[in-house]
Amino acid sequence: MATTTNYSWTTPDDTALVKDGASAIRTLGTSIDTTVKALNPGTTSGDLDYYTAATTKARIAKGTAGQVFTMNSGATAPEWQTLNAGSMTLISTTTLTGASVTLSSIPQTYNKLFLVIRNFLPATDSDFLQMRFNADATANRHKTQLYYSVFYYNTASAFGATSSQISAANDNAVSTSIITVEIPDYTNTATWKMGETTALNVDPTTTTSEQFYKGIAIYNQTTAISSLLFLPSSGNFTSGTILLYGVK
């Protein structure tokens, strides 16, 4: 029996008898009806069709406002996704306690890191907060560049510390401070790393007054950042919370 090229529908042979024509037409019609139904599985307004094989079509329901039609992560089928460019994802929430705290196993899937440090409270009065990229305590790999420093634009400023300062001095009894750190392009392995820091601290002498801090934490290594260590300038933490965000 003859068949069509694309869908292999059964058709009469050239030598078929005329008396079998009605049956052949019904067979062909049934094949066409079945194929067309498979290629058009639904009629809901706004739905989209896609092919899972050369002759098999599937249908996906329409998405919601602001979504885009894209391939899934396994590149096996299309799906609707909500755009998240520029969005922030909370990676971890960590309590400041003991002599130091390390945020480890930081995901390498974001464009930059953003940290919010709430209510930093040192056990020792007038202590400030410090940070180490990759928990690296090797000498002369860290430095702090202050915005108001005369060396702000000095390209010859040397590295000479095991950590970078990221806050002003804080009182040891009142914890209403807030500190932010923004670390761009933290996954690259070709450049030094930096974190822009802004801090509003409680003045150690007059707790109704503030101390403001603005600077850059700098690390002269090209390794991607996978951990961050925080420690007070002396002694221990009494309290505080670090919120680590990944930014797309």
Write the layout of secondary structure elements.
Blueprint: E1 2-3, E2 10-11, H1 21-39, E3 48-53, E4 56-60, E5 67-71, E6 78-82, E7 88-95, E8 101-103, E9 112-122, E10 129-133, E11 142-146, E12 164-165, E13 178-184, E14 193-202, E15 210-219, E16 228-232, E17 237-247
Antiparallel strand pairs: 1-2, 3-4, 5-6, 7-17, 8-16, 9-13, 9-17, 10-12, 10-16, 11-15, 13-14, 14-15
Question: Would you kindly provide a written description of the structure presented here, covering whatever features stand out?
Answer:
The longest helix is centred in the N-terminal third of the chain and has 19 residues, at 21-39. β14 (193-202) and β15 (210-219) form a beta hairpin. This protein has a 7-stranded antiparallel β-sheet, with no helix packed on it. A 4-stranded antiparallel β-sheet has the order 8-16-10-12, with no helix packed on it. The mean pLDDT is 86. It is elongated. It is built from 1 helix and 17 strands. It has one helix at residues 21-39; strands spanning 2-3, 10-11, 48-53, 56-60, 67-71, 78-82, 88-95, 101-103, 112-122, 129-133, 142-146, 164-165, 178-184, 193-202, 210-219, 228-232, 237-247. The chain has 2 domains: 2-82, no CATH class; 88-247, Jelly Rolls (Sandwich). By secondary structure, it is mostly beta strands.
